[in-house]
Amino acid sequence: MAHGPATLADGLPKYLARWLFTTNHKDIGTLYLWFSFAMFLMGGTFAMIIRAELFQPGMQLIKPEFFNQMTTMHGLVMVFGAIMPAFVGLANWMIPMMIGAPDMALPRMNNLSFWILPFAFAILTATLFMDGGGPNFGWTFYAPLSTTYAPDTVNYFIFGVHIMGASSIMGSINIIATVMNMRAPGMTYMKMPLFVWTWLITAFLLVAVMPVLAGAVTMMLMDINFGTSFFDAAGGGDPVLFQHIFWFFGHPEVYIIILPAFGVVSQIIPTFSRKPLFGYSSMVYATAAIAFLSFIVWAHHMFTVGMPIAGELYFMYATMLIAVPTGVKVFNWITTMYRGSLTFETPMLFSIAFVILFTFGGFTGMMLSIAAADIQYHDTYFVVAHFHYVMVAGAVFSGTAAVYYWLPKWCGKMYDETMGKLQFWIAFIGFNITFMPQHFLGLAGMPRRYADYGLQFADWNMVSSIGAFMYGGAQLLFLYNVVRTIGWGKPTDDPQVWEDAVGLEWTVPTPAPYHTFEKPPIVK
Amino acid sequence: MLKRAQALFLRLLSPAIALAIAGGVSAENATRQINMPQGVTEVSQAAYDIHMIMMWICTVIGIAVFGFMFYVMYAHRKSRGAVAANFHEHHVVELIWTIVPAIILIVMAVPATTALLKVYDTENADIDIKVTGYQWKWQYEYIGEGVKFMSELRTSQDEIYGRAPKGEHYLREVTQPLVIPTGKKVRFLITGNDVIHSWWVPDFGVKRDAVPGLFTAAWAKTDIPGTYVGECTELCGIGHAFMPVVVEVKEEAEYNEWLAGKKLEAALYASTIGKEWTFDELMVRGEEVYERSCAGCHQSDGNGIAGVFPALKDSPIALGAKEGHIAVLINGVAGTSMQSFADQLSEVDIAAVVHYERNAWGNNVGDVTQPVDVLNYKQGQ
Question: Which of A337, A509, B240, B343 has its CA 20 to 30 A from that of B142?
Fold first, then answer.
């Protein structure tokens, strides 16, 4: 994503060195975005392999051992490599421009937090080519499958997770420092764009839970190599302890993924409704409430582990509560559209689809919160469908919307609206063909992470695979659209880009110059 | 290369054609179910009921919310000349849509709690059965009856890898199903032997993780005889998809007859353990056992999987002393996924599989391993 002049006149090194040593928030944002897109395609390739194998019953293309590596790597790469870095990239690009800051607060750390990421994923991916293969214990890596019974390469996995964690913590500290210290005069907290708010809260979640994940993998490391027994019942440990620790990280993690997506949608819907966001302050409070609740509901991922009934009831009630602030958000988005003057450009289409499909995923989430019913849903394709509705139609759709929304600002070129809409419809239809039938599969009894299945599940699996190939194809179109826009898009120099876009980022020239807000703007 | 690609393409395409023409490959094999089963126990019925309540509540809310949204998208579009209003908050409305969902949730919590209490009502059972998850099979032990057996997938590797047509019960058939009587409250005491598994019978509404080092209880009571199929639902390694749960519910008299037969079988086995087996008899039985219990990791051709599961072909253990070979099966190998088979396989089966491994795939040790060798090793320990 090219942007305004960045030449030797700025004192910049050339070529590779420029990207290696850059401390510019826009450069680093660009690096994050391209990296995450590369990871998205890699994780997507793993998904295609999974769906190709599941196209019909029986083992045709790969063996169960490799299948397990694919499901694991798909989850890890998508969560840690694609979605999280994508939103960090957006944060890098947009937060300084939205709050009127010249750059991030800690530019050198910003460089470091990006540049350790490729190493983490190189290490993780390299395990696929080693003896024993890559991680094969699911992205949730439950012990003892991931300790005593894991291939030796698990140590690379642990190292990789540590590096990713360090990167995330640095990135989030940077965001907190930037938002707290570098807002333009007059930009009070309650005037910040919602994207900045959701990221600020997300950054606190990250700082709180990434160390917990680091603790979990360190305990694994000790169990595997140094004779401890944190998770080994035979040595006095407890495999269930692992799950508590993992989900204490893991549940806030899913909100880490979705909150910035909420922020993006809260920027886009007002623009194309030509109307200010409805219920700004309730949006902020709802985000904070969701973040708080995310810390106290973790064991709803463990309803079948055999917890005492008191625990089970508590986690059920607490989980049901999440529906309240989430509902507030959905109602606010829809009311923002109400009595607006709507147009349906590509970013708006993705945002509306986000609201519909995320809400649908929220409904299945509410069903999953009911422990007695969850016992039937747990670890089936119903869960797979649920979290893809909130993660893919949630985070990925919103990330796509964000790219189309801000791309003209970044590179001063307009994308092709027809191609954007084409991508949207293929993605939207393909997504639903893929994941809607997975609800049926799960309810009918198909467990997740199955390399092979009984004949009664054949039909819907085939439909799901066809949808997945379609959805995968839409991503290639996305890549094409973005490259074509950067290379050959129609130039634009309208600072506002969109008729009714509001916010500081739309006051700087288009394309955004290499340095913006060297003198802070005054916000009234 | 081109030929292979073509073959692959056709293989992928053919079911699509079959789907289009015949309306699905599974039409004859099972009803095409898309909802949760009601099942045959109080617990499964409770799960189904609360599931349906939730689904209808979500459907009604969904229709209202999305209906309004589609109306807005239709009526307030710029192309129809809509002009944007300029409001951005309304405290009463915001309060209503915070409080109303909260009230709905409180109402829903009541049936949700009642249903969960049923799940946990494990007291006063008539029969206790210990269920142990192994990589990749289930062991059932009738506590106090002296009956204990392994339940393993019966579907052949040939069917799985497309070298033979798939049978009607593909991946839904086991060597020995769990058998329980009608009208009795059966309590399952569930644990794991190696990694975490999860024992699920949808029609009973029972899904419980089988965690090593932890016993938890679940229960079922039904009056409807039949065969109920379930699955392992916690990722447990490469055989995760290949360890189904099959439960047969029989009338009480039939059940008692079955149980007596099982006890007799155990007694008979004890008396024939001293039998002298021939080289070829052991090879045949050994191959059966190997395919069922060993080939998942060490592979049918004995080559294993590099870096994870060692090859048995030309391995020093298979070619070395018989006692050492037996020892690996009895004790397992600490710190690896090679588990102890002492409780999983009978002496005859251990002898047969050791014999097979020593004399298959060009491992020509030529000796004969008898059940009595295994028994001697166990007793010597």
Answer: B240
